[in-house]
């Protein structure tokens, strides 16, 4: 479990380190914050697109093998990013890092399912997700804290060292490779995906998580430049505020057993309300400390939505669970990548306050719509 957690931590840490550094990297590389903000999309988009491919590949070549290769490529691409001479090179290397990271977390969840019996699996997955959240939390906060001393290039070298450490742990801990259970078949994989997409409940879940990612995660790369523009602080303050999202997720993971007593409908509606309120308060808060509190609430509310989506998607197609989870991850990270572009356009056209108000309205509508759709018995029947 510790080895799997180290891989999950390295992957999510690498994905969140660049967000508080957008303004610093833009000045150093003689580019614009809007261009450098695309480092998030350059990481999330390949992460999403590779999911439908890596699921069948991991089944054919071995899950442990795929994670070992992914960690090695991630460590190399992160080290190379520290020496990027311009924005175009940095974006290209972030694309490679996103591809590599896409072969770690979802495959790690599959390994947990393989190696832990059902009686222990829920606790094991909880610990695995905790490592993911800690990676998000530390990635945003540590990069903002250390940027003033190490520079953004030193942050990328630190991320590479963390990925290399996880790779060494994985190589030493998983010395033998299990025999692949099946051969890789494009025809079988496509047939499974078609069957999953024929289920209305599955399509609804993919849509909900896609919209959730656009309305929330798409904001993150713009926090640092907006803070500088409004005189609220630099990379340190932006990193602390972004870390608040991970804090909210951790608080939800600690309270999840009690939250389940609300029931699915109330949990989803409540999540939409909490996210909407947090985003609206974020728009009017005059101090970065209040922004941190709002981001903690936002993280808590997002996981009130995301956790039920993630739980529901594991049961829409029990005979093809890995494929369903892959499509779920594809939708989620595709939404993150598109969200950066959508939010950037909205900020330019509508401004900060109107954009956050629109995101808040979207989150509220998402909570209400998903509560209605997922509680509908008709949504469970295949077409």
Task: List the defining traits of the structure above.
Growth Hormone, Chain: A; disordered C terminus; 2 domains; 383 residues; mainly alpha
The percent of residues in helical segments reads over 70%
Instruction: Return the CATH class of the largest domain.
Output: Mainly Alpha
**Mean pLDDT metric:** 81
Count of individual domains: 2
CATH architecture of the largest domain: Up-down Bundle
- Give a quick account of the main beta sheet: strands, pairing sense, barrel closure: none
Q: What is the CA-based Rg, rounded?
A: 20 Å
* Unreliable residue stretches: 378-383
The N- and C-terminal alpha carbons lie at a distance of 39 Å
Secondary structure class reads: mainly alpha
CATH superfamily of the largest domain: MFS general substrate transporter like domains
Q: What series of H and E elements makes up the topology? A: HHHHHHHHHHHHHHHHH
- The proportion of residues in beta strands is under 5%
Count of alpha and pi helical runs: 17
Indicate the overall shape. globular
Strand count: 0
What oligomeric state is this? single chain
CATH third-level topology of the largest domain: Growth Hormone, Chain: A
How would you describe what is shown here?
The chain has 383 residues and is mainly α. The protein is built from 17 helices and no strands. The protein has helices at 2-16, 22-28, 33-36, 38-49, 51-61, 63-81, 87-101, 105-115, 118-173, 186-197, 200-216, 223-230, 235-259, 264-284, 288-313, 321-350, 352-374. It has 2 domains: 1-173, MFS general substrate transporter like domains (Growth Hormone, Chain: A), CATH 1.20.1250.20; 198-383, MFS general substrate transporter like domains (Growth Hormone, Chain: A, Up-down Bundle). Helix content is 81%, strand content 0%.
């Amino acid at each position: 479990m510790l080895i799997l957690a180290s891989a999950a931590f390295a992957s999510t840490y690498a994905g969140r380190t660049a967000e508080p550094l957008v303004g610093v990297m833009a000045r150093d590389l003689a580019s614009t914050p809007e261009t450098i903000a695309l480092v998030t999309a350059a990481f999330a988009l390949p992460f999403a697109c590779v999911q439908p491919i890596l699921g069948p590949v991991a089944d054919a070549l071995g899950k442990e093998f795929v994670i070992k290769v992914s960690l090695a490529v991630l460590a190399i691409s992160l080290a190379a990013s520290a020496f990027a001479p311009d924005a175009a090179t940095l974006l290209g290397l972030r694309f490679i890092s996103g591809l590599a990271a896409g072969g770690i977390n979802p495959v790690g969840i599959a390994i947990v399912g393989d190696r832990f019996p059902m009686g222990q699996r829920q606790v094991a997955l909880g610990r695995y997700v905790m490592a993911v959240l800690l990676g998000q939390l530390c990635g945003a906060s540590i990069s903002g804290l250390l940027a003033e001393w190490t520079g953004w290039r030193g942050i990328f070298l630190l991320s590479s060292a963390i990925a290399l450490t996880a790779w060494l742990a994985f190589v030493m801990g998983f010395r033998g490779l299990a025999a692949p259970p099946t051969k890789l078949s494009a025809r079988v994989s496509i047939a499974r995906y078609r069957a999953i997409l024929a289920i209305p409940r599955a399509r609804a879940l993919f849509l909900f998580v896609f919209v959730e990612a656009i309305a929330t995660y798409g904001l993150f790369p713009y926090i640092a430049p907006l803070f500088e523009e409004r005189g609220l602080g630099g990379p340190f303050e932006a990193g602390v505020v972004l870390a608040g999202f991970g804090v909210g997720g951790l608080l939800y993971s600690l309270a999840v057993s009690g939250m389940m007593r609300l029931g699915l409908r109330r949990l989803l509606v409540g999540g939409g309300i909490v996210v909407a309120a947090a985003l609206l308060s974020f728009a009017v808060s005059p101090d970065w400390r209040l922004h941190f509190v709002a981001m903690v609430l936002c993280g808590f509310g997002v996981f009130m939505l995301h956790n039920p989506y993630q739980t529901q998607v594991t049961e829409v197609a029990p005979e093809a669970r890995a494929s369903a989870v892959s499509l779920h991850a594809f939708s989620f990270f595709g939404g993150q990548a598109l969200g950066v572009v959508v939010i950037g356009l909205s900020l330019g056209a509508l401004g900060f306050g109107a954009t956050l108000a629109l995101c808040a309205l979207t989150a509220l509508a998402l909570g209400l719509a998903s509560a209605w759709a997922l509680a509908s018995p008709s949504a469970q029947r295949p077409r």
